[in-house]
Amino acid sequence: MVRKVYEVMTRDVETVLPSDTVRDAAESMRALNVGILPVCDEAGHVLGVLTDRDVVVRTVALGMDPSVTSVVDVMSANVQVCFEDDDAGSVLERMKKQQLRRFVVVNAEEVLVGIVTLGDVSHDFDERRVGEALEGISEPAPLQ
């Protein structure tokens, strides 16, 4: 039986607004023990994600003050999403192909409803298929 994403995803995901400061977002990450926060508008539409890597590489390393820098200035805007009614197997294949360990999950109105990770979608598949996906995700990305 192939499950749908809504059956395995994490719901009630904490989000940040684009106008929030990087420092406040980083404090939320610390408190929640997560490395990623979706950036949404007031209606819940996904505008991007803020990762711990964004905080370090796009804020700290460039000498920006996280107390005054807005999330929108350093977030990753090119976000891969999947829909809550997508098959977990197709999402696993997309993760492999796009070398991503997680997708933001949206509903038909493209409003955030959760996050799904490689671990979430891998439970219903044999070790070989999950291993191939992990291997694909772990391959170095081609130079551009």
If strands are numbered along the chain, what order do they take across the biggest sheet?
3-4-5
Which regions are unreliable across 5 or more consecutive residues at pLDDT < 50? Answer: none
Shape: elongated
Secondary structure class reads: alpha+beta
How far apart lie the N and C ends? 39 Å
* Biggest sheet architecture: 3 strands, mixed
- Mean pLDDT reading: 87
Number of E-type strands: 5
Percent of residues in helices comes to: 25-40%
What share of the residues does DSSP label as strand, in percent? 15-25%
What is the H/E string?
A: HHEEHEHEEHH
Query: What's the alpha carbon Rg, rounded to whole Å?
Result: 16 Å
Number of helices: 6
Topology:
Elements: H1 5-8, H2 22-32, E1 36-40, E2 46-51, H3 52-60, E3 81-83, H4 88-98, E4 102-106, E5 112-117, H5 118-122, H6 127-138
Parallel strand pairs: 3-4
Antiparallel strand pairs: 1-2, 4-5
Helix pairs in contact: 4-6
